[in-house]
Amino acid sequence: MAISIAQITDLHLLADPEAALRDCVTTARAAGVFGALKERSPDLLLLSGDLSEDGSPASYERLRDWVEELGCLAIAIAGNHDQPQCLAEICGRTPFINESVYTVRGWRIIALDSYQPKRVDGWLGAEQLDWLDRRLGEESIPTLLVLHHPPVPTGVAKMDAIGLQDGPEFLNLIARHRQVRLVLSGHAHQAFIQSRGSTTFLGCPATAMQFDQAELPAGWRSLELEADGSWRSQIHWVPASSALALNQ
Ligand SMILES: [Fe+2]
């Protein structure tokens, strides 16, 4: 039986649920996506960073409440806008998975931390890369990695300037581990797909504003992972009208 995953990213929630960020009421848009997810009942939610814009406890509490209401497990990682300590305090217990490595139905899911204090760009660092190399060396089942900053160029120069600064080291590492089938990221506020060797790199639209096409509504990505290592993925858009109809 396949595992059904929903990736949602770059929510940029604010303490005030009616406040706007660049003309985008981020809480309402994220609420619309959670409403859409209720109809799909994913097995696992991947929240790939910039969950809060202001790092406020209220924003993480709202996110925790939505996840609890959805009723599935979740993995939450920090983006450059987050406050990792506050995120961990509020979203660090069930239904959030508080482990970096999670094995489910023949797949391994590994969450990476590319957050750097007071910086917009990302960095994994030698210690984390060594750790990842060891973990990948111990198990060869199909593996999905998730991190906030895209490790590959997105083609948008100003975004690539603030991407994963040790991306080349990361790419060299995973090239030695052919079981890494998928690498998911946020940060770019746009979808993309790239393949390198046996690995596919997927970017995801934000639930907040999209950088490349501001007129697009909130988006998210679904994934179905099969035990034989194959997978399917799709982008979904949630019109603003459905966001307005939902509770915040
Ligand atoms: Fe973001």
SSE diagram, text form:
Blueprint: E1 3-8, H1 26-38, E2 44-48, H2 57-70, E3 73-77, H3 84-90, E4 101-104, E5 107-111, H4 125-137, E6 143-146, H5 157-160, H6 167-175, E7 180-185, E8 192-196, E9 199-203, E10 218-225, E11 231-238, H7 240-244
Parallel strand pairs: 1-2, 2-3, 5-6, 6-7, 7-9
Antiparallel strand pairs: 1-10, 4-5, 8-9, 10-11
This protein binds fe (ii) ion.
Fe (ii) ion is lined by residues 10, 12, 50, 79, 187, 189.
For the biggest β-sheet, the strand order reads 4-5-6-7-9-8
Main pleated sheet: 6 strands, mixed
H/E element sequence = EHEHEHEEHEHHEEEEEH
Provide mean pLDDT, rounded: 95
In the CATH scheme, the class would be Alpha Beta
- Could you name the CATH homologous superfamily? Metallo-dependent phosphatases
Protein name: Metallophosphoesterase
InterPro entries: Calcineurin-like_PHP, CNP_phosphodiesterase-III, Metallo-depent_PP-like
Family: Belongs to the cyclic nucleotide phosphodiesterase class-III family.
Keywords: Hydrolase, Iron, Metal-binding
